[in-house]
From TrEMBL:
Transmembrane segments: 68-94, 115-137, 157-176, 183-204, 224-242, 263-285, 305-330, 350-367, 373-390, 411-433
Pfam family, one: Aa_trans
Sequence ranges assigned to domain Amino acid transporter transmembrane in this UniProt record: 37-428
Molecular function terms, GO-annotated: symporter activity
Key words of the record: Amino-acid transport, Auxin signaling pathway, Membrane, Symport, Transmembrane, Transmembrane helix, Transport
Annotated family: Belongs to the amino acid/polyamine transporter 2 family. Amino acid/auxin permease (AAAP) (TC 2.A.18.1) subfamily.
Topological type in the membrane: Multi-pass membrane protein
Assigned GO CC terms: endomembrane system
Descriptive protein name: Proline transporter 1-like isoform X1
Subcellular location: Endomembrane system
InterPro entries found in the cross-reference section: AA_transpt_TM (IPR013057)
GO-annotated biological processes: amino acid transport; auxin-activated signaling pathway
Chief place where the protein resides: membrane
Length: 445
């Protein structure tokens, strides 16, 4: 799909792309800004996703179920294969002489309408669950601040989740599209560094002062199998957005080479802080590591409060990135163009984005099981979108240019990650079933 206009998406006329089987897929132009961002800004968008407050849970959700050697190797391997899979999708952005600014557009162009609809469904389930997880994280951070200064337990986690959802909605109403984040990406980076540095330093202090830790993988043999599979899904979730074409749509020409620069920036600068806080948290606390690392560390109250407030605020910014495809769809469908702060456009964002985040917030308050959530997200959406579909689309698009060995490699990836996706989904559902016996709806975790 060629995208024309002034870069602000001033046309919402639907156009049709005909796939190889002659089934029509309507591809609307976008109401959001495209082709306007430098590769450096897009790199920060990607890095913001990697170093969100989710990193404060990886010690507990990845290292504890896997242990030292599998955990470290798993993170390194996941980094490499995620960069590889994302590069495959990035290379297809202008496949067929058209620019595909949405994941579903690319899938529809290659496969047809059924794949277009299936990809759309998978992606929005993925992004909805990620957004729900962000609201849980934000609520947990606020509750941690409250617990530092009060022990009356009057305020419960669902209350803080509701507050977080309201703040996220206010931010969503103020930022019209993904490219408009600009300055906020720098603010997000500062917040990320605050909670990562605090978690790292206080964990080192606790680790030095603590007695010998237990690094054994907890649970029975049967439970270890399921938690290991679930942790593998968390590894995938840690590095992937499930919305790479939508992010790539904002980048300036040449889009493929610039996107590759952004990806290399993400995986060179972005993963080091994540590695540091994940490994040091597990080293300091072993198998007793909390799924929210700042809940484990000891230190001055004001320092922990600052770190938790930073985690809360950074989460509000990061959520906006993963909610932007939904906002783009709605704004485009209803022709929200022109000044973002006109009465019509502002009232539309208040009603529609506020309603969407209200649903996210309600689900977050009902089921605040963060580890379970991450596993299920990785299983049912991130695996298929990032690895299965990426490899198969590349096979389909480049079939005449690949050697037999290259084709075999991509088919191996499709089959392997397909099996992993099924196994991870079963594991996550089992974990949810087990936790549902322990926790109730609107639980105060």
């Amino acid at each position: 799909m060629e995208v024309h206009g002034d870069g602000a998406g001033n046309s919402t006329r639907p156009r049709k792309v005909i796939d190889e089987e002659n089934s029509a897929v309507e591809i609307p132009e976008t109401a959001h800004q495209i082709s306007s961002d430098s590769w450096f800004q897009v790199g920060f968008v990607l890095t913001t996703g990697i170093n969100s407050a989710y990193v404060l849970g990886y010690s507990g959700t990845i290292m504890v179920p896997l242990g030292w050697i599998p955990g470290v190797l798993g993170l390194i391997i996941a980094t490499a294969i995620s960069l590889y899979a994302n590069s495959l999708i990035a290379e297809l952005h202008e496949f067929g002489g058209r620019r595909h600014i949405r994941y579903r557009d690319l899938a529809g162009f290659i496969y047809g309408r059924k794949a277009y609809c299936l990809t759309w469904g998978l992606q929005y389930v993925n992004l909805f669950m990620i957004n729900t997880g962000y609201i849980i994280l934000a609520g947990s951070a606020l509750k941690a601040v409250y617990a530092l200064f009060s022990d009356d337990h009057v305020m419960k986690l669902p209350y803080f989740i509701a507050i977080s959802g309201f703040v996220c909605a206010l931010f969503a109403m103020s930022i019209p599209h993904l490219s408009a984040l600009r300055l906020w990406l720098g603010v997000s980076t500062v917040f990320s560094l605050i909670y990562i540095v605090v978690a790292f330093v206080l964990s080192v202090k606790d680790g030095i002062e603590a007695p010998a830790r237990d690094y054994s993988i907890p649970g029975t043999t049967r439970s270890k199998i399921f938690t290991t599979i679930g942790a593998s899904a968390n590894l995938v979730f840690a590095f992937n957005t499930g919305m790479l074409p939508e992010i790539q749509a904002t980048i300036k020409q040449p889009v493929v080479s610039n996107m590759m620069k952004s990806l290399y920036f993400q995986f060179s600068a972005g993963v080091l802080p994540m590695y540091a806080v994940t490994f040091i948290g597990y080293w300091a606390y072993g198998s007793s590591t909390s799924t929210y690392l700042l809940s484990s560390v000891n230190g001055p109250v004001w320092v922990k409060a600052l770190a938790n407030i930073s985690a809360f605020l950074q989460t509000v910014i990061a959520l906006h990135i993963f909610a932007s495809p939904m906002y783009e769809y709605l704004d485009t469908k209803y022709g929200i163009i022109g000044s973002p702060f006109s009465i019509r456009n502002l009232s539309f964002r208040v009603g529609v984005r506020g309603g969407y985040l209200t649903i996210n917030t309600l689900v977050a308050a009902l089921l605040p099981f963060l580890g379970d959530f991450m596993s299920l997200t990785g299983a049912i959406s991130t695996f298929p979108l990032t690895f299965i579909l990426a490899n198969h689309m590349y096979l389909k698009a480049k079939k005449n240019k690949l050697t037999s060995l290259q084709k075999l490699w991509h088919w191996f990836n499709v089959c392997f990650f397909g099996l992993m996706s099924i196994a991870a989904a079963v594991s996550a559902l089992r974990l949810i079933a087990v936790d549902s016996k322990t926790y109730h709806v609107f639980a105060d975790l």
